[in-house]
## 1
Amino acid sequence: MLTYLAINNLAIVEQLELDLPAGMTVITGETGAGKSIMLDALGLALGDRADADSVRHGTPKAEIHAHFDITKLPQGQRWLKENELDSEDSSECILRRVIHANGRSKAWINGQPSSVQQLKQLGSYLIDIHGQHEHQSLLRKDTHLILLDEFAHLEKSVQKQSQIFRDWQKCRRRLEQLKNQDSEQQARLELLRYQVEELEQLALEDQELQALEEEQQKLANAETLIAEGQATLDLCDGDDNSARQVLNYACQRLSQIPTQDTRLNEINQLLNEALIQVEEASRELNYFVASCELDPERLQFVEERLSTIYQLARKHHILPEELYQHSIQLREELDRIESGPQNIDQVAEQLEQLTQKFREQAAKISQKRRTAADKLNRQINKQLALLGMGNARFETRVQPTEQFQSTGLDDVEFMISTNPGQPAKSMIKIASGGELSRISLAIQVVTAQTSTIPTLVFDEVDVGISGGTAEIVGKLLHDLAQSGQILSITHLPQVAAQGDQHLHIRKFSTKTNTKSEMHWLDEDHRVTELARMLGGVDLTEQTLAHAREMLLSNLSAQATHATKTVQTIQAIEPGTTS
């Protein structure tokens, strides 16, 4: 669960630090005060896309720290260990995100540099965010299948199905390629055989062309190289007038001068170094001249082989240096085509096996989906009744399809009948925004109950709801929070009154600055905030009394619920004391 959140210079929040407890935390504030910034910060900490607009105006960077208790989150602990991002304290996970004013960002997990993709992967184990516009995603059929599979805990089974589907697709494409070897491909096959035979007769080796060209230059110019090399050698180390003899004589003369002048010593050193260089050059020239041989037969062979290579390269419309790699590619293509017909029966048999394997896995998943759909229908219809839609009937339609899909052989769609006697229709055809909001909330409440994620965030999912229904919504969220942590941004006092704790955010503006601050509210301040939500800016004694009664009534109900829970545990476990 989320235990700590720190925000610096994000949007209109200058600095914010929160220690967050378990249970239900409600977050309220006037419109435009920045209630959603907390969610924006969480989103950035968990890998959402960042840009320069996220950074508070006039500051170099924004920074978010989020600490999570992962003691009861084995999946998250396993992910951290597999990615070598775990810390010495296995019960805690610390995320950090920095967004610079130029739009660039950096991320850390437990103090180690990480990618945004890693933040997203880890975040899927830490927090589940339900937004006020989530009903819009319910208008897409693919969302219905995902929600049903999550409710039925079919994620691993569907992953296995997807892998079988990918193998089946690959095998089917391979078989089609083998069957489509028509006359055009046969002509290609004959051409390849001729080209490969011609190139293999040449037997060109890697880097041979460069070696042949260098050898041809040396053989063709051998006579000139020998003559000029020997002449240069004589100049360097020949008679008394050679460079070596002259330098040697100069060094001797200079060394005999009786002086302590350091400049002459330096000159003498330079001459000695020059002498050493001339001697080294002379030795190398001697080796070079000795290695040069006049070999007309070898020269003829090299030039004929080079000519053959150049002709073949022109024939294939490539550069000579590309011929070696080209010959390898042609051989591979020929082997691939020639082996095709021999493998048609084998690939067809493999495809049949994969088809059978796909259908068997899809049948298992389909059966589990139908069982889960019945359970999901019952639970959502129960929640719809609590939300004032007792006449509505929710159905999860699971129909077989013959079209192979990565998810199996099922077509899943959520259906709803909002009036008695009317057949259930696709949710896409539901026109009422208020009805969609309540249906969405019912689905979210039910699916959240089976979630393994300890922290659930609800961002104004109560939009379009009021009165007694709003109070029920608050109770539903409060009940969910008893087994984990709920953060609920709300504009309804009936929901806010149900919170175990209450955060209030407000915005301050001056002529030059705007910022938001968030504070925990004690009981008296909660009454004032509930009164504002009930009656607006001008608070009356009647509004305050109503707010106080609402809050105290809920606190009393929560205390009674907690007492009953303890009594139930004691009845199950005799001898236990409170």
## 2
Amino acid sequence: EIASIAGNDGLEITPAQLFRHPTLSSLAVALKLSSKTARASTRESSTQVTVDNANTGIPGNCSAPDNIPVTASNLKRIARSNPPPTLHTPPSATSTALCDNTQSLHHTCSARISSIGVYLPPGEVTTEELIQDCNPWHMFPLENVTGIESRRMVDGTEFSSDLACKAVRECLANSPYTAEQIDMIVCCNITRSSARLEISMEPNTSMQVKRECGLTHALAFDVSNACAGMFTGMLVVDSFLTAGNIRRGLVVSGEYTSGIIGTAQQEITEYLDLRLASLTVGDAGAAVLLESSGKTGAGFHELDMYTLGKYSRMCIGQITDGPHGGAIIMRPDPIEHTAIAVRHSAANLKYLFDTYDRAPESIDHLIMHQTSAVSLLDGSRAINKCFGKEISTARNTINNLAHRGNTASTSHMVAVWDHIQNGRIKSGDKTVFSITGSGQTIGTATYTFDDLPDRLRSITKTGKKPEKHMAEHTMQTAAHRNFARVQISATGLFPDNQTRPDDTVETAACAARTCLAKSAYEPCDIDLLIFAGVTRTNHVFEPAIASMVAEKLNINDSIDSETDRKTLAFDVFNGAMSFMNGCHIASEMIYAGKFRTAMVVASEVETNKLHFPDRLLGLAETGGAVILD
């Protein structure tokens, strides 16, 4: 915010300088401002970075006291008179003419969390220890900015599926159901490591967990949507529940994220390095068992999610180019990435409360994606600004970062688990989940707890697990469905007369364009976009490839208002079955009334071509797409 205000006045200040020089005096010296320039920069003007000397006692020159911080609050009056510019370009006239800009479908949700399980590795590593192992290190105040003192990390014997399996076993142990009584398992982890420096493509995580945990009757597939993955999985399971296709389903994630820490420690070279986010992560597994909430009043009420593909490349997780190997997270512009997520998530929360006429003052807990203390503070400020009053407070906003770090897609559920165990979350409490994930996926979920907190605390206190339901009581036939069928409206393949690019996204987008050209739909008519390919260029595992395809095709990739038409984009991952899983998921979500139209797109590329040209898979590199309605 400060850098933006200064930039509007022609004064070049970077976020890195503000971290290094947090007082007006030290910043002025660092910028080598003359007294004349300094006085000019503090002159009374609605378009300049100014400081009211009468209110702050700061003289208009470089001799300002060292203890006067450079903060947005010191520039509050100026910020109020200069609202930040809009982040989005308005839709074109053609787009407006072709699309109904009113999104009439709302993502109501009728599932409840029947049980939850979290697994945290026993090993704990401090931020200070991580910093000491960086080569070289430039003294960025990581712990102060992020609020992360330590995080749990595996010891080299546990990886993605191990973390997921242990969370599933805990979840089932806390529930009245057996593994054989689970109808569906959806794994949503970003990371797919089966060993250090190894990525497991097939079998996927859900198939491994199904085998290891005895989920013999469960339909299994992975959903990938960066840190919004678990909520995307919950939306999928809720659709199957609503459509009467299943009775209960597990949503699981095993995040072995600490693998990227070692890569970052070898590669960080600058004060605000693009790889700094890799040092904030922690390992965790989480699993939630969902079933219909019935008419109890407990459970989810709304679960609204959409994807702004325009910003899909603002955070990329992939394998490194370095000879040491490993995965890495890159954020070309972390400041803007956070600003976009904060602004839209706050607006979506306000929109949802206005739409469903809920009282925001009734919130007992607000749980945002746990990334850093600074981003949580920004989120609170943005929410309060949207509502015009204090909705997010220190009392109701949960900060779970200190000893967990950013546990990626599991962060919300780890926070729920921790604060049920410490007694903060109580039975009957009303909770709002603010959802953000690279891609950029935005969302809000409203939830009322039943007696789950009391049940879990009782299990922890007494060690007594719930008795299991008899199989004949629970495994009844699913309800008969009498809905209109879902059809394939159009198909498209990568054109034979075109040179195939060595790129997953472009190959998929080209097939999607061919499909759209043969249909009655424009890109903005697509409500749901699913990518179902197995291979991906450079092993990109964050964000969802679907979000990048949405950006290529301008499928509602940015919005001006929460009432604009929106699209949710995510990936389905299940080997050669992925495409049919994608069609199945899209059909159930249309049956459930979540969406009207869906596109399922896939492409396959020689994923080893860049780094391991001697280990090609022998794939036909091509793409295909269908539109369902």
## 3
Amino acid sequence: MSEQKKSNRLFDEFPPVSPEAWKERIVADLKGADFDKKLVWKTREGIDVQPFYTAQDLSGLSHLDNNPGEFPYVRGNKIKNNDWHISQNICACDVKKANKKALDILNKGVTSICFEFHTDKTPTANDIETLIEGICVEAIELNFAGVVGIVDFSEALLQVLKKHKIDPSKLIGSINYDPIGRFTLKGKFCTTQQDAFSKCEKITKLFASYNQLRTITVSGIHYSNAGATTVQELAFALAVGSEYIAQLSKLGLTAAEINNKMKFHFGIGGNYFFEIAKFRAARLLWSQVMQQYGAAKADSKMYIHAQTSEWNKTIYDPHTNVLRTTTEAMSAALGGVQSMVIDPFNTIYEDSNELSERIARNQQIILKEESYFDKIIDPAAGSYYLETITHKIAEKAWKLFVEIENKGGYLAAFREQFVQNILNEGAKARRQAVANRQENLLGTNQFPNFKEEKEHINPDALKPTDLTKPDAEVPGIIRYRGAQEFEQLRYRTDVYAKKNRRPLAFMLTYGPVAFSNARSQFSQNFFAVAGFAVKDNPNFDTIADGVKAAKEAKADIVVLCSSDDEYATIAPQALELLDKKTILVVAGFPKDSVEELKSKGINNFIHVRSNVLESLTGFQKELGILK
């Protein structure tokens, strides 16, 4: 019997199961519970994620038969392996120090350097010489960012490259010039719109023979850092890329010439599978954009640089940022990016140090050397789930992109404040989700480190970043982190505790142990989020015993932890025994007795539906921490 026949007989024993049959079985197992409410995840993108997917979900997806390196590049541009450049940003304000640091980290696994100029001075040819001294620039990816006087700098760089006889075909890197990105953040161009695109055209032509040196950057990461969804970040980035092609085409460049000099700089968010799908969808959609501009299929590839987003990074319990950036790096690698930066875990509140930078580098090295993420191209291919969300993200991003194009392109839509309004509306909803703990930030609004205290936090790290210029045409977008309001909350307690006793939340546990223990754990976590000291206790025999112990502990807040059935009796008893200055809180929301309890002066209830931020801010006001 042939192997083929054996195979057929084997599969005959396992006939396909239809989606309807799967759902029927699941509904039966739910025993009357609502399928959608229980099992369907509704994302911020407006995509309903099902609990299971089948081959039928992939019907009609035209790109599934394409291999890596083939149009429309959903599976990536790579054909030999999935390698990417491990990149690290270096402040180049002091060129000698920057060179020394570059030489050091290039021996520690980095294959890409980005020199960032945080200065108003245009780097000279001598500065560039100093920066690259001792570096084999043909063996790495070489990038420059934050340059003032981009044309003069580009001419100086070209002079240095020719002096050192660098082979134009071997130099890989970029000059990260993004005037639209600046306009997005600051609400105005540095000089004029016409001058900005004229500079783009000049530096693009200047490096025409350097096939792998990119001169135009599309900074999708700005939207990621403003709390955008994967769909919004992708759509806005596509619109910016399209705007560059439209504007530079007027100056005589072809779509292919522009695209071959363009680099997309995306953020990497914490939604693991959606980020993988985002990068796959990005290549698919950009290839379609390029086709509309008449580019050949070979000239329709998207070059992607990825960097971990700031949005979900935290100041409190900062080592959790390492966990976040690890999964983010995984999703970017599996998504097929060309280069990647992992920001050190502490950069949002202080200068990175040798340890944090080493951890960031080693995260990528481990993904390559121990996990072999660089060996397999697009392992997501064929996954019913990932292929489906790739398609859905692409579909929704394209719809938003077309809406922007119909408004006259990105610049017109931005001047109309269309982009800002979308981001501001999303930010409001996302802040609410964080406040309610519908979106969790480990160590900040959920499961905090009870013993952590901060001596000092830079105030700028605790508030959103608005770089809009005083003379701006329109408001720029506002970047913020989801943890900031909770960090402000906890830091207020830390500052208060320097001169006063740290407020104590005392768990008065009583009644059924299953309820009292569960609610005590919940309540400790709840109050520790605000930096309050918490004290757990074994169950008390009587409420009077519990109140006595609370007084001895000098509790500021007493949290009654019991079952709903007990509260109608024991809550008024506890209130009567406590001092008037002590705050009584009921852990839970006993709906049958809550109105009666409120009529007796018991108004504080904490539960899973509480607005944690609002509740804890209220307690700080009662305790005199917040005036």
